[in-house]
Amino acid sequence: MGSFKKIDTKIEGLVVIEPTVHGDARGFFMETYSKKDFEGLGIKTEFVQDNHSKSRRGVLRGLHFQCTHTQGKLIRVVNGAVLDVAVDLRPESPTFGQWESVVLSAENKRQFYVPERFAHGFLTLENDTEFVYKCTDYYCPEGDGGVLWCDPHIGIDWQLDSLGMKKEELLLSEKDQKQPTLVQINWNENWK
After folding, report:
1. Could you list the active site residues?
2. pLDDT digit string (tens) for 120-161?
3. Hey, which CATH number is domain 47-187, 2.60.120.10, 1.10.1200.10, 3.40.50.970, 2.40.50.100?
4. pTM of the full predicted structure?
5. Among candidates 171, 56, 52, 51, which has minimal Cα distance to 124?
């Protein structure tokens, strides 16, 4: 038996990963990635870049994707918590434009695997949240793309009321405030 449990979502290819955590009075140990175990779960990809960000509560980053050098991501939180969101941007998919969210935290140690051709974003739920992720391709500024985080065509429930947050209090980059909506992008010509 491997060190990971795969939990499928309603969107094909988008999965939550639960690692096996070994803990005692000293603390804990867990594997965060094993190529062999992930291949056994059906995730047959190679990661080439790791990224790490730190944000305060109420920061919303996304929804981001790359048109060229598309990136799959294996995401986890090492301090704090986020509401992590992925949107299917595969025009041929029966779930095109649909989204899934999961809470990732240092406490629950869950990971989220987001395949290529998905938009990704997250909302930080605690101060000093540290977010780390592996990518299947390198960052390519020329291929950088995004979808508006509050696009009514997608209808993501960011759970602001239950989290005690207000839309006007969220911290977004200027770029993320001005992203196009799903219907403003020609998806059949977008992927290269």
Report:
1. 64, 133
2. 999 999 999 999 999 999 999 998 999 999 999 999 999 999
3. 2.60.120.10
4. 0.93
5. 56
